[in-house]
């Protein structure tokens, strides 16, 4: 298990790499060029600069999250082939700098969604929460509620310039149902797979978060059944998953340890996001600290599933809480994610000693 830490870059992340380096057991930074639009080629020089900054801190850049897939590719618009060419060039450029895994998602229009970015828990810590009732309204209601509530932080995909064209984007999706979206996904994977093989870069699709349709948009990476259909595009190990326990586990019907066991045993899990959530009622959940004792997921059983299937890929803690007065990017503070890492590595060490 290779432990990583997500980092948003020198300009956008308040956490210095020197601090990441001090978290015991962390050797990998999960990074990206966040300013580049989906559909563009990532220039070699920009990747080189990111890698150099990470390596100068004594860390490695082997996992990138995310190289976003454009809506043109998801919708199947004519410009998708140009975007796919750029994606292939990006795979090649990343591989030249030692990148082994690309995390991405196939969610239309938006990325992950929460309805509260700073919800206070009884212990005085803050974390993100979700209420399906609120998402059942219009996305503008959600936007008004969420934006500004966390020091002006915007959910990914909700950037101002993007929201300006949002009606047209919704319209462009009006003919895309789940089957259509899946067909466009298969088209994308088929088009990039040779490049992945040639450059030895494994693709790892992140599940939908939350794992259900939002604002009437189709979503197709919601649970084990969806994942089986996606895995069936090709049996190549270059087409795999980022198993995100918190995203998948927010559906109370999903058995995360058994899903992890199934896909890891198939060799289709190059990357894992480990985090816990607490089901607080029908259609609601909040993010918690990583240990099993704090939330609804059995983190021991999840890590055990990885151990027993001989997992040797990359993991990172996912969203953590804001604790000890820290107030940075929601979900991506230093302290709680560092605590999570120590807990997860403790489970891993114990499993190694006893199995
Ligand atoms: C949610 C997070 C997401 C994820 C992207 C992947 O669980 O891990 O930010 O990174 O959706 O593209
Ligand atoms: Mn995740």
From TrEMBL:
Reaction(s) catalysed by this chain's protein: D-mannonate = 2-dehydro-3-deoxy-D-gluconate + H2O
Keywords of the record: Iron, Lyase, Manganese
Gene Ontology MF terms in the entry: ferrous iron binding; manganese ion binding; mannonate dehydratase activity
Top-level EC class: lyase
Matching InterPro entries: Man_deHydtase, Xyl_isomerase-like_sf
Cofactor(s) the protein requires to work: Fe(2+); Mn(2+)
SUPFAM superfamilies given in the database record: Xylose isomerase-like (SSF51658)
Source domain of life: Bacteria
Gene Ontology process terms (BP): D-glucuronate catabolic process
Record pathway: Carbohydrate metabolism; pentose and glucuronate interconversion
Database matches in HAMAP family: UxuA (MF_00106)
Function: Catalyzes the dehydration of D-mannonate.
Protein name: Mannonate dehydratase
Species this chain originates from: Propioniciclava coleopterorum
């Amino acid at each position: 298990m290779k432990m990583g830490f997500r980092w948003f870059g020198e300009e956008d992340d308040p956490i210095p790499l020197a601090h990441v380096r001090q978290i015991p057991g962390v050797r990998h930074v999960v990074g990206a060029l966040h300013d580049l639009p989906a559909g563009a080629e990532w220039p070699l020089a920009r990747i080189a600069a990111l890698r150099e900054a990470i390596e100068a801190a004594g860390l490695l850049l082997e996992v990138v999250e995310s190289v976003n897939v454009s809506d043109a590719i998801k919708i199947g618009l004519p410009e998708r082939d140009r975007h796919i060419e750029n994606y292939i060039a990006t795979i090649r450029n990343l591989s030249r700098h030692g990148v082994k895994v690309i995390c991405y998602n196939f969610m239309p229009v938006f990325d992950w969604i929460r309805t509260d970015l700073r919800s206070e828990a009884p212990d005085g810590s803050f974390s993100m929460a979700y209420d399906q009732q609120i998402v059942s309204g219009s996305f503008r209601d959600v936007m008004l509620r969420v934006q500004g509530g966390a020091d002006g932080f915007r959910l990914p995909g909700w950037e101002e310039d993007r929201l300006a064209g949002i009606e047209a984007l919704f319209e462009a999706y009006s003919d895309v149902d789940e089957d259509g979206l899946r067909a466009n996904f298969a088209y994308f994977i088929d088009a990039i797979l040779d490049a992945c093989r040639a450059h030895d870069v494994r693709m790892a699709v992140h599940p939908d978060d939350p794992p259900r349709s939002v604002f009437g948009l189709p979503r197709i990476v919601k649970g084990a059944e969806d994942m089986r259909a996606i895995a069936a595009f090709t049996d190549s190990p270059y087409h795999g998953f980022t198993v995100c326990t918190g995203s998948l586990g927010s559906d109370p019907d999903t058995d995360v340890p058994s899903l992890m066991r199934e896909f890891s045993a198939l060799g289709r899990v190059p990357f894992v996001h480990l985090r816990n959530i607490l089901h607080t009622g029908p259609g609601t959940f909040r993010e918690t600290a990583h240990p099993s004792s704090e939330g609804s997921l059995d983190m021991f059983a999840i890590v055990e599933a990885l151990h027993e299937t001989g997992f040797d890929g990359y993991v990172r803690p996912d969203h953590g809480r804001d604790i000890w007065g820290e107030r940075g990017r929601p979900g991506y503070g230093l302290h709680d994610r560092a605590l999570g890492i120590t807990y997860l590595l403790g489970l891993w060490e114990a499993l190694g000693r006893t199995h």
